[in-house]
Amino acid sequence: MNNFRYFMPADCYFGRGCVSEHKNAMAKLGKKAMVVTGRTSAKKNGAQKDITDALDALDIKWVLFDEIGENPDVETVERAAKIAIEEGVEFFIGIGGGSPMDASKAIAVMAAAPEKGTDALWDADAKALPIVCVPTTAGTGSEVTQYAILTLHAKKTKSSIAAHIFAEVSYLDPKYMDTLPAKTTNNTAVDALTHLIESYLSVKANYVSRKIVEMGLSIFKDCIPALRAREYPADIRDKLMLMSALGGAAIAQTMTSLPHGMGYFLTYEKGLAHGMANGVLTQAYVEQFPAGDEHVANLLKCLGFADTAELGAFLDDVLDHEAVYTEDDLNYYTDRFMEQPGKIATFPYPLTREDIYHMYKKSLMK
Ligand code: NAP
Ligand code: FE
Hints:
Blueprint: E1 11-14, H1 18-21, E2 32-36, H2 41-44, H3 47-57, E3 61-65, H4 74-87, E4 91-96, H5 98-112, E5 131-135, E6 149-152, E7 157-160, E8 169-172, H6 182-201, H7 207-229, H8 234-254, H9 258-270, H10 274-287, H11 294-303, H12 308-318, H13 327-337, H14 341-344, H15 353-364
Parallel strand pairs: 1-8, 2-3, 2-4, 4-5, 5-8
Antiparallel strand pairs: 6-7
Helix pairs in contact: 4-5, 6-7, 6-8, 6-10, 7-8, 9-10, 9-13, 10-12, 10-15, 13-15
Bound molecules: NADP nicotinamide-adenine-dinucleotide phosphate and fe (iii) ion.
Fe (iii) ion (FE) binds at residues 140, 191, 195, 260, 274.
């Protein structure tokens, strides 16, 4: 067995009612919080009220920033950080999908070093004020990862900030997903699946990260019929939320790999939801491994698929991918992706520009 480090320091509470039951976990984080959400969902699903009720009960003051859009950009983070600094905010609570959770990490980095402005985001050693995460989608695992992904309009893509920030406390209450539409449920579930797969197949995987992935994949397998039927009883919501956190715990050790790096351009250029962007590239990515690769065989077995074609058919079934692409698009994405040596280095075999182009072509020109 190779030597490795396992590090995932977020204090996690799982279960229905966990915010109110374990609100004291926030008591030590500060006397004024900024609650960071998207425009509507946190109000509709009850998470925002649970958090503000808990803060009121703890006598912690709070301000609300509810303007985080999907795939948040640096400009929005900057706006929120300015308010947080003016208000003397001491900690942040990101409620929502990955977008508000990631944004809260980036805002907390900027608020910790007001003199640095957005430069703080690109400083790998930057510190952040404390964060609490409350996921309301089951996909990104941001509640247990150190990553915060922002849209960079200047570079026409998305990128992880350099600072690595874990939540201090995460509340995983599956009831917040009762309001989640089928489309978002499936896209986000596929994001979590791609975290599990990319982590498992990465050169950075270790014994523990692979065991975590195997557990996540077997839980995912139980959810496959519900994802196909687009019906999600409470026990499936529970499993999706747990599986997503396991995917997060795995990529926290290994980072993501090719589908994530390749998919950012599909999101930026064609508006594909993040999970869909990874999902449409996954069959071709797995097929890029040589026939007989033991880790590919294992992950298909954990999921109950006979081969990669069955995995691809499942992804086609649960994602509603309709975007249209040209040869020029594929060449542009390929050239841009080749600028990311970090992602390419996670793949255990040599990769050429032609391999990447071929993966895009196979995935997008079916
Ligand atoms: P999202 O962009 O956070 O949210 C997608 C949509 O779902 C929004 O319209 C949101 O509405 C809505 N929504 C969220 N929860 C809901 C609920 N319970 N009921 C009804 N609607 C709900 O989607 P996401 O896929 O979770 O996050 C994607 C972002 O996370 C991307 O930027 C991606 O790059 C990033 N990501 C981060 C990591 C990481 O490790 N940090 C990993 C993977 C991906 P509102 O806007 O009204 O809230
Ligand atoms: Fe992801």
